Amino acid sequence: MGTAARSAAAALLLLSAVAACTPRQQQRAEARREYGRRRTGIKAKYRLTVTPPEKQALQELPATCPA
Q: What is the pTM of this model?
């Protein structure tokens, strides 16, 4: 499978995942993103460190179902 085919397959998987999000899942995803925004703001304000697993989790938040 070529690079373009893999990219197209990945895009289709992403679209199907977004389409599968119910309104309740979208609400939960938005709540998680809001929590992430607040947590990031507090960490920045008080210059707190971020552990590697915490950083990974915060980076993955935007990938959740869109609101």
A: 0.53
